[in-house]
Amino acid sequence: MSDTIDNTLTVPAFRQITVPLSDGTQLTARLWLPNGPGRVPLVLEWIPYRQSDNTAVGDSMTHGYFAAHGIAAMRIDLRGSGNSGGLLRDEYLSQEQDDAVEVIAWIAGQSWSNGNVGMIGISWGGFAALQIAARRPPALKAIITCCSTDDRYTDDVHFMGGALLTDGLQWGSGLFTQLGRPLDPAYVGDGWREQWLARLEGMEPPLAHWLAHMERDDYWRHGSVNENYRDIQCAVYAVGGWTDGYSDAILRLMEHLDVPRKGLIGPWTHIYPNWGTPGPAIDFLGECLRFWRHWLLGEQTGIMDEPMLHLWQGEQLRPYPSSLTLDGHWITASQWPATTNHHDFYLGDGLLTDAPAAAAPLLIDTPAHCGAMGGEWCPLDGGGNAPEFQGDQRADDGLSVCFDTPVLEAPLILCGKAELTVDIAFETPSAMLVLRLNEVDVHGHSARVTFGIHRLSRPDVPAGQTFPVVLPLKGVVYRFSAGCRIRLALSTAYWPMAWAEPGQGPVQILPATGRFRLPLRTESLPDKPDAFGPPRSAPALDHEVMAPEVTARRLSWDAGSNTHRLTMDAQRQKTRIGELSFDSEGHEAYEIGATAETASWQAERRQRYQRPGWHIELRSESRLAWQNGGLVLNSSYSAWENDREVFQRQWEHRFPARIKTIGG
To answer: With a threshold of 0.90, does the pTM exceed it?
Structure first.
């Protein structure tokens, strides 16, 4: 954490409290109340990640900072998580939102409250802020939603453009392990074990829910605020990073919400911007305070007089799996879509040309292991330091069909979503087409600026007959440098990021029908190089790092079996707070041979909590593979107390192959 700690702050001590719900369930929380008299607003963070230990250090730095500046703050554990009662069965359930509406009303009714509540959150907490805002609790006046989405199907960790993402498998196995974490007897007392065992008995593998809904249906529509943006009536500040998986949602929220709103997209991955990586990190908590003071205290901080969007204009992207670098500076936009010009390129014989060119049809039939340099859809979403960024794209480019511009004589600034329009054909019921937009420098290094993954189905046309498609890439603001080339790379595989699906064959494209449109920045979008100061936070809760994080990511190829394998190993940081120590580890393996049917994934995870006389260990295993044309998910879970197994269960779930879908 790279914050500058403000040791001059007078940070009030947190209070450990419980919040009662109408059904008798008790939720546990940490509450920071500002010193001094008077009624104050409160900012709520609503997540299931254990405020008493796992998130305690970061919570103290963030919520302590708010409280030191006159804004009360609360970190509460959802029903069935941490030391809260009840069961947590899946993401974003109606019960979770009902509980939040109750909690917000409870907060507004406290003697110290001025009746105004804000919500802040990243990832799950960011989703929750949007979803609960759509429920319109009267006291909720504003939200800051970070690294979240308005669309749980087409733009979440589970699917991209209809294709199953393996980031969702990772997250599913991680959440599976977390669901069985114990209540802490130091907070709950003698009834902790009975509640813990009930929590274990009520578990199901989350992946089983998600894989049962491979198409967009009511399961995914629930919690997707793009179903009706008008449901949100409070002020919204949407925040994220271009390197994160969720940046497109910020642009859509700015376009479609009809409330006071602001957006901020930096170079970062899945992390709060005051800890932002790749840098620069910024004074995000100071920005939050300006927003909170405006909407919760009625002060004129000037924040709503500024342009709607602050965007990082990247340049000179240097890909490296453990340390991606994205130079650039801030620009602003007063609306979205921003006012842009566009430039159309056309598909020639391996070229992107400024005028339509004759070119023969091309068959794209990519080796199944293409994509190995793609990194993760959402790098570092677990908060660690694993080598999860993209690598040099030349290896994947060599397996793809590529179209290059001539060397650029002047810079070109992309601002928005690039889009390919082209006629295609395929014989199979569905197909996948992956588009990567790369910058190739003078030395031949290839960096992925943005990309799109699309699972396509044939409309009402016979197999092999051509039809037009419009294929967008993720939005971005990026300056292609003079002396470089722009490359459009097309493939029918993107392993391991996109799960390989049997029955998806080659795709024929007609380059002569192709148009690749780039929206270009205009001078009406001003530079703002000094938009934000350096990061600041409150001092961290006393803790000890007992062991640092150790991670590894290894690619290998067995020439005899033509099997490609990716393994990922992570021993997370071991931390001690008081007498309690906690840590976790994870091991994953992806394999694929020459065909999609050979794709497999498995994960093993462990989490440990320990203090004198109390030692809990949780173990989970997950495996997904194709079998007899369908998917088979095998899961197992065991829980140990003081080296004695107290729970063990295995599951097998089978899912038929998809027949039809609508591509991204």
So the answer is: yes
